[in-house]
Write the structure tokens for this entry.
Amino acid sequence: MKLLLALLLVLAVASTTTAFLLPSSLTPPTITSRSSSSSTRLGASIFDDVNAAMKQAMKDKAKEKLSALRNIKSAFGTALKEEGAAESLPDEKAIAILTKLRKQRLESIEMFQKGNRDDMVQAEQAELAILEAYLPQLADEKTTREWVAAAIEESGAKAKSEMGKVMGVMMKKHKGKTDNKLVSKLVGEMLG
């Protein structure tokens, strides 16, 4: 038992000591924001892009960037374990995971702002910037408004109580392409 604990301690120290030696560098990934048609692009998947960026961050000794990428890779690893024997994640699942992480960062930023923790707000915003580099560009408000109007017409909704029908159509046609809070707000306005 003592040998096992000693081995774990050595592994933990070996993996974390380099993090303390790394200089502080905060630059977003060098990839460009993804379009909504990321599945048709040539090149690596989001999963592979994150792994490559993580290796580059290690070489560049970019501590904050590396930390954010490790958090992303950890979330990807959890999803891979749930899936089973897969070696890579399809972009659709990677985007769903990144969207969830983005939402968590936004909520954390809001809570830290309420608690006057500017240092933590900056750290979360930095991680959010790195996350968003791997997410497809969301539609602007004008485009979203047009899509919501079309979804209302298609669903035949007439009142706010039928908001679920509209949201269902929006999710089916434009999942991952819009900010769901904005969609909800616009549906409420148009049906209200």
